[in-house]
Amino acid sequence: MTKLNDNQLPSGCSVTGHYVHIAIAIILGFSGLAVFLDVYRDPQSVALGFGLLLYSVFGIIYSIKGIKKIRRYEKLQRQRKLDTQILELSISNKGVLFPSTVSIALEITIEEAKQILDGYVARGVAELEVTSEGKVLYKFSEMSN
Question: What is the Cα–Cα distance from 67 to 89, expressed in whole angstroms?
Answer without folding.
Answer: 33
